[in-house]
Design a protein that fits this description.
Strand content: 25-35%
Number of helices: 7
Shape: globular
Largest sheet: 7 strands, mixed
Strand order of the largest sheet: 3-2-1-4-5-7-6
Distance between the termini: 39 Å
Radius of gyration: 16 Å
Length: 206
């Protein structure tokens, strides 16, 4: 972690759009290696299993990356709005999800505002830990305003022992639990190996 990154974190600023555009521009596809390995399968299976069983109306996917899980959401929801901070990610998502008529892709930095609309579920997977605590609180408040009463927040965070200057899952779960807006319905933790842990939680808006 370089000094500039540490300084930004100290002053309450998470990772920038520039950071993610650089990451995507360094690969031709599959920047996060979602198409490789058992851990991704376990992650996607757990998220899909955590989705409400009843038909879902409108879903907001925050941090859609290249649209791998968006395809699963499109099968479960009437409408999916998928957003990401990176324009390159959005372009690749559109290609990966060609033909899905119930999906709309929007480039958005959720710290500056969510896509317009009210939703029945927000999926926030591996996003909050790139934000500072101050930014995460603000984003969670935005989630609450954009969800209909009784709607759901599905949250997940991967964690590795060598992560630094990131909001860890315990901190993120704490912010959600103490906001007074959410009722936790379920939480799970998957320990994949000595390095990686996946924390997943389903919450309902009061």
């Amino acid at each position: 972690m370089n000094l500039l990154r540490r300084a930004s974190w100290f002053f309450g600023k998470g990772y920038s759009r520039k950071h993610f555009e650089k990451l995507y521009s360094g690969t031709a596809r599959d920047a996060w290696r979602y198409e490789q390995g058992e851990f991704t399968r376990l992650r996607f299976d757990m998220l899909a299993e955590m989705l409400p069983q009843a038909s879902i109306g409108a879903v907001l996917e925050v941090g859609c990356a290249e649209g791998h899980f968006t395809r699963i959401l499109a099968l479960r929801a009437k409408q999916v709005v998928a957003c990401d901070i990176s324009e390159l990610a959005i372009q690749r998502s559109k290609q990966n999800c060609l033909g899905l008529r119930n999906v709309q892709f929007i480039r958005a930095d959720v710290r500056k505002g969510l896509p317009i609309g009210f939703f029945d579920l927000i999926l926030c997977s591996d996003v909050l830990y790139y934000l500072s605590k101050k930014e995460a609180v603000h984003v969670l408040e935005s989630f609450a305003r954009s969800l209909r009463p009784g709607a759901f927040l599905l949250f997940s965070n991967e964690w590795q022992a060598n992560y630094r200057c990131l909001l860890n899952p315990q901190e993120a779960f704490g912010l959600i639990s103490h906001a007074g807006v959410w009722k936790k319905l379920r939480s799970e933790e998957i320990k994949y190996d000595d390095q990686r842990v996946l924390s997943v939680g389903l919450f309902r808006k009061n």
